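Appendix B, Record 12. Input sequence as logged:
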Amino acid sequence: MKILAINGSPRKNWNTAILLNKALEGAASQGAETELINLYDLNYKGCISCFACKLKDGKSYGKCAFKDDLTPVLEKIENADAIILGSPIYFGNVTGAMRSFIERMAFPYVVYDANYSSLFKKKIPLGFIYTMNLDEKTMKEWGYVPVLKGTENQLGRIFGVSEVLYVTDTYQFNDYSKYIVTAFDEAHKAKRREDEFPNDCKKSFEMGVRFATDGAIDFKTESMA
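Logged structural output:
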């Protein structure tokens, strides 16, 4: 089993990265080969609409033809047995870096036929780990879930089945007094970090275990933090 985790956060040691590493720890505990890729280390663009991946008899049919730092990552995606995408939520969606990555990762596999069928050679589990400052109630009221679900469904059609973990009301700063953030109660954030974040880490670890042991099976589960 080869399991890739993609970090769409600019922070390499904070909430999203910690959770992704926990998921990989879970996978590794079952003998899987794992790798974490930090998108903000890479220099790349989103889809440039060249359509080389759709060209009849083209040498790049079904593959992204644009060459940049993302090219070797896309090659790893092709050979992965499971993929876990992690991103903080910025303005109601994943980061720009993650969105650009998803465009490049997914579009080449989409066939413009009547069924929008997939060229990806197998069905694999996809994990989505979202971190955000909002609490769960506000996340739902502000309509985050349907927006994220749309992308999950599209990727599910291409790659396989998905498991989702929402990690809400996260701890964002080491010292809240340095910032103007009156919307948040630092004491509450610190307590939630202490009480709930370990549970979120446990859920991430368990996701990794499932992905390493179940492989490309037909399952779908959704977790709420």
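The first helix runs from residue 15 to 28.
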